[in-house]
Amino acid sequence: MHDAGPVAIVGAGIAGLTTALCLARQGFEAEIFEQADSLKEVGAGLQLSPNASRILIELGLLPALEAIWSEPESVALLDGRSLRALASVPAGSFARNRWAAPYGVLHRASLQKILLDAVAAEPRCRIHLGFRIESDPEAAIDRAMARRPSVIVGADGIWSRTRTSIPGVGPVQFSGNIAWRLMVPRSEAVPLLSEDRVTAFLGSNAHLVAYPIKEVGSFNLVAIVGGKAGESVWVGKDSEERRRELATALDGWHPKLRMLLTNATATTYWPLCTVGDGAWHDGTRTILIGDAAHAMTPFAAQGAAMAIEDARELAHCLAESQDVPSAFASYDRARRSRIDRVRKRAAFNRFAYHARGPIRLGRDLVLALKGSESLAADLDWLYGYGVPGQ
């Protein structure tokens, strides 16, 4: 389908930039439209599991990633009350050997800059900043481009404006969980937090994930607790009231962890919303990817990874199909079952991570019996995506 017109992409986040690069590698011209006047991402770390990093490696980005990210030696689960070790999944060289790609952690802004630099160096890609869609996304894009795009890709996140072009899209809904992003300087975090691992502390109705962000000399912390959305579903700065809610959610947790959170900086919270099942495209020209199509809870740490997988699969389907409707149908077939399985894994992790009472005791026993190798094998379908034979 390479004789078709250019592809328009709405959104210059990880999903949109990766899509542009994947399309360019397949010979397509891609124009990215972003409402922000400048690109900047603040206060968030990111885990890149092997299924995502493998695609970025295909795009030639490994040297840039290796220059800034950390490759933890393991992902460890600990009890939030006692700090007792519950289980550990090896990463580091083990991940490279087993899943043929590394497991890395870095600042989200760092990945966005790497992708942006690659887009800027790609002759087939152009980016337009300060482009705001007020109404009728397709008409706005058509007016902005010299040639009518053959495809419009909505990569503009959970509050996508592109979604208004597609009948039957899934509803945006509050998940019942609040996420807190926090940063802690390295000097205050060690030895409680380890620089060579991702640590997940588990507790009743809450869990906390921590890992080092080498570029800023800090640890990224994400605390996810059950809660109410309140008046707004947008990201908010913390307040005394919100801090009390977090402290209450972590009541009974180990004093060292509670103190760590009390002293954390760059604190924001946001109610976690998801996009339910529904249409991802209109069958003719417009398609949604990433969070715009299927935003999920972060309990499997796969939000960005699914967007990166979407980008590669969409570019492949457009290159291999005779026309756009056929490409969309192929993409739908390829991604529906995958997204559904990852959603189910995230739901299972939420159940396991936030367990209490007898269920928590059963969880701890199962984790102890399984062992690291068995836990890694359980992830082959997820992390080994795209590896021949997996």
Automatic annotation (TrEMBL):
Keywords assigned by UniProt, alphabetized: FAD, Flavoprotein, Monooxygenase, Oxidoreductase
Record's protein name: NAD(P)-binding protein
Sections of the chain in a coiled coil: none
Transmembrane segments: none
GO molecular function: FAD binding; monooxygenase activity
Cofactor list: FAD
Species the sequence originates in: Sinorhizobium terangae
Domain FAD-binding: 6-344
Gene3D superfamilies in UniProt: FAD/NAD(P)-binding domain
